[in-house]
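Bug #77: duplicate submission created two jobs. Keeping one. Sequence:
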Amino acid sequence: MYLRVFFAIVLVVALENDSEAQQIDGWNYERLMSESDAVIIAKVGSHQKGLDDDETSLRIPDVYKRFLQLGMTSFSVKHVLKGEVGDRFRLEHFTYRGSNSGIGGKGPSLFEFRNRTVPFSGEGWAVTRRFKYLLFLKKTSNGNYQLTGGSKYMDDSVRIMMSPF
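Kept job's structure:
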């Protein structure tokens, strides 16, 4: 009898903890396309980090201010798949303050935009590639853009694109 009670308690605790766990839904392509103001393929121009609150419409939640800072990356547009965007635009986003250690998996999902070539190599071969990005964007009131997935699902709104080896 005590064994049954023990297993019943373990089952209740397990189910209760599971129901309180954070649900990670993610964003599929259909949702990204329908909720984005613009969908584009672009190359990175320049980065700015450590922006003040008045330079962007993003706000860092207090719990993450120790780890994150505001950033802005400029892009040159290669192809527009949805919406109207000029030849260049600026993307507001979060970046890590210094090292990204300490935040663990509890913070927003962040993305590093690379504006340099990246080397790849294998046995007997080596190439360098410059990334292009497929971006799902929402226009902000100040004329910049943010990733459609918001601060929590930023990485769902970005795809790296490059030519094959």
